[in-house]
Amino acid sequence: GAGVSQTPSNKVTEKGKYVELRCDPISGHTALYWYRQSLGQGPEFLIYFQGTGAADDSGLPNDRFFAVRPEGSVSTLKIQRTERGDSAVYLCASSLFSTVANEQFFGPGTRLTVL
Amino acid sequence: TQLLEQSPQFLSIQEGENLTVYCNSSSVFSSLQWYRQEPGEGPVLLVTVVTGGEVKKLKRLTFQFGDARKDSSLHITAAQPGDTGLYLCAGVEGSNYKLTFGKGTLLTVNP
Q1: Which residue, A41, A114, B33, B104, is the most exposed by fewest CB within 10 angstroms?
Q2: Are A43 and B43 in contact, with CB atoms under 8 Å apart?
Q3: Half-sphere exposure of A38 (CA within 13 A, CB side)
Q4: Which neighbouring-strand residues pair with A5?
Q5: Which of B4, B46, B98, B101 to mutate to test the interface with A (most CBs of A within 10 A)?
Q6: What pLDDT does residue A99 have?
Q7: Sorting pLDDT into bands at 50, 70 and 90, what band is B2?
Q8: In this structure, are residues A67 and A57 in contact, taking their beta carbons and an 8 Å threshold?
Q9: What is the mean pLDDT of chain B?
Q10: DSSP secondary structure string, B19-75?
């Protein structure tokens, strides 16, 4: 089947605006992860879902960031009152199980630019 | 805070040369993964190493996990232009599912 897909691939917004980034995981994968990759850096963990619930949101930088996964498949990362420092590539990954050795499959990312 | 240090940060070599990149940490990891990322794409898993001292080979790529499970290396033999990309190491601590990534090594192999 298809891999992890993310939409939009690029998003340009103005400071202070609200944005939503969407992730479609691989069908049947119960675990879903969001990471953020800034220029010249490796991806940084944001939040992890097991099924519909956020099992760990310790990586969200502040309360402007929120993510949901209402039906246990598609997830949306929501950013309120965007700031220029939010500009980055937002990566989504999914895995069959949330175990140490379980491979995480990454999507191509959404490049967010806040002007 | 990045717990994994990768070196070198940039590497430009000619086709046919050998190279080694390093991933070091003061933390012990239950497993360590190596990914390759190309522009506009997400990281793609190359290998997972779990046991201290483990060596895994993937064609021309050789991965080693340190005895203390704090460091790892990736050696490429006879590099080809298709090996060009960002090589990332990522560690998993304990039974945690979260990946902690290094900053990566940007490799360019010139024909």
Answers
A1: A41
A2: yes
A3: 10
A4: A24
A5: B98
A6: 61
A7: very low
A8: yes
A9: 92
A10: EEEEEEESS--SEEEEEEE-TTS--EEEEEE-STT-EEEETTEEEEE-TTSSEEEEE
